[in-house]
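Retry 2 of 3 after timeout on previous attempt. Resubmitting structure tokens to design endpoint.
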């Protein structure tokens, strides 16, 4: 009986607790004593949920537990001499036709930088060419944007970063394509090992086709034409504009990944499946001739006596391969031709940029036209050579080796004081010395140079 009465006593206490339970729950809820735990959905983790999503009215069970929101970030660098760039991460939406990038729920939002514009081409100091490049607008959307600030909804979601660049500018000049687009693309996109989506403004199908092997080596996905599609593509991060350091070169200390022109040339050889990584010295007693490819121009700065120059090179001991504009423009084929050669030679011009395909320890020979052009010619095609693992030589034309003799008397400043022409401005230099002359080699002098070159690159 005692046990039975004990059981009843405890049972009464339990019943009382059950009656008090609703009151206790109400007290806990009102005093916010429960831990606030919110589970992110997949969309929330990628930052694709509107700022108000997950919040309900006062009758909702999660009204006191707001879902965490991933904030996006935008940062830009306008201090680089070569290019302007912006990087962003979080909820990034790219709308092609209006060339607009939305950075949604941007923690970096400020009213004064809510809209940023740049032209994604790495030659920003040349205003004239930059005006030919389409402008891209980046809009930062604040975390609590109203209806008027809502970005467009995603049409397609990508799980890889985006890189936005332009195929405009000097897109038909091989030197500029390498300097202003391809090397900067390598610096910006190579680190993703193909898992990156390239988007091009000023989209030029022929350009994309010409450089398809390089583009395919950078990205596993076809390049998107931003100009023609109305799709809103969403990315976890993006780069607008390309990292760039210098003309036809890379400054290793500025590269986030320690890239160099040696690693870039390895990348190029891989992209084109070039088989010859390094020049092996040719023995003069072996009977084998070193190969020399001579780049021939057809507009300004032609080599007017090219046939005699080829003969001189052949008689000295070279196997000379003549390459005109049609040969050089077939990039897939010509990359292999250049890679098969020990020496690449030509008058100052874009064709010399094909040195990129030479094997390591190859030799670049620049023929510098008359007119005190040594410094600008070296800047473009002399200084970049050594960082590529190549050797550089130059042949500087004399006053007797120019067709300017047919236009100006020998007592004109063009011959007596070329620097006086330089002081008149770039247009004068361009019209007279760069675009206004051809080269007529003194074959006896040129043959002596070629003999020295042959001795320098061969062994006993």
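Retry 2 succeeded. Sequence:
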């Amino acid at each position: 009986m005692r046990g039975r009465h004990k059981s009843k006593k405890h049972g009464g206490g339990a019943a009382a607790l059950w009656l008090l339970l609703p009151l206790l729950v109400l007290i806990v809820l009102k005093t916010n004593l429960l831990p606030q735990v919110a589970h992110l959905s997949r969309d929330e983790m990628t930052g694709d949920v509107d700022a108000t999503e997950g919040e309900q009215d006062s009758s909702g069970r999660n009204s006191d537990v707001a879902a965490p929101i991933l904030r996006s970030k935008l940062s830009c660098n306008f201090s680089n001499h070569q290019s302007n760039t912006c990087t962003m991460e979080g909820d990034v939406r790219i709308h092609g036709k209006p060339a607009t990038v939305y950075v949604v729920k941007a923690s970096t939002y400020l009213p004064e930088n809510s809209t940023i514009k740049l032209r994604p081409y790495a030659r920003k100091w040349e205003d004239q060419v930059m005006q030919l490049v389409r402008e891209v607008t980046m809009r930062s959307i604040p975390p609590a944007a109203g209806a008027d600030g809502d970005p467009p909804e995603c049409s397609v979601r990508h799980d890889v970063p985006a890189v936005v660049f332009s195929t405009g500018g000097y897109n038909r000049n091989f030197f500029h394509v390498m300097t202003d687009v391809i090397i900067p693309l390598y610096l910006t996109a190579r680190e993703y090992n193909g898992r990156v989506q390239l988007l091009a403004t000023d989209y030029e199908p022929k350009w994309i086709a010409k450089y398809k092997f390089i583009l395919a080596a950078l990205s596993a996905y076809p390049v998107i034409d931003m100009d023609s599609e109305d799709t809103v593509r969403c990315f976890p991060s993006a780069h607008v504009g390309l990292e760039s350091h210098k003309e036809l070169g890379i400054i290793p200390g500025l590269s986030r990944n320690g890239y160099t022109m040696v690693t870039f040339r390895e990348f190029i050889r891989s992209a084109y499946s070039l088989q010859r990584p390094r020049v092996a010295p040719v023995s003069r007693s072996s009977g084998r001739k070193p190969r020399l490819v001579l780049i021939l121009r057809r507009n300004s700065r032609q080599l007017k006596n090219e046939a005699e120059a080829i003969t001189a090179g052949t008689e000295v001991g070279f196997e000379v391969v003549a390459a005109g504009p049609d040969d050089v423009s077939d990039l897939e084929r010509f990359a292999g031709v250049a890679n098969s050669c020990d020496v690449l030679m030509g008058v100052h011009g874009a064709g010399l940029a094909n040195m990129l395909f030479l094997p390591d320890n190859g030799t670049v020979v620049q023929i510098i036209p008359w007119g005190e052009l040594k410094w600008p010619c070296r800047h473009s095609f002399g200084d970049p050579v050594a960082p590529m693992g190549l050797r550089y030589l130059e042949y500087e034309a004399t006053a007797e080796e120019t067709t300017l003799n047919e236009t100006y008397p020998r007592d004109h400043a063009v011959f007596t004081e070329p620097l006086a022409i330089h002081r008149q401005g770039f247009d004068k230099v361009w019209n007279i010395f760069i675009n206004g002359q051809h080269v007529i080699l003194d074959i006896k002098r040129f043959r002596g140079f070629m003999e020295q070159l042959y001795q320098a690159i061969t062994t006993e």
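Attempt log closed. The first helix runs from residue 2 to 31.
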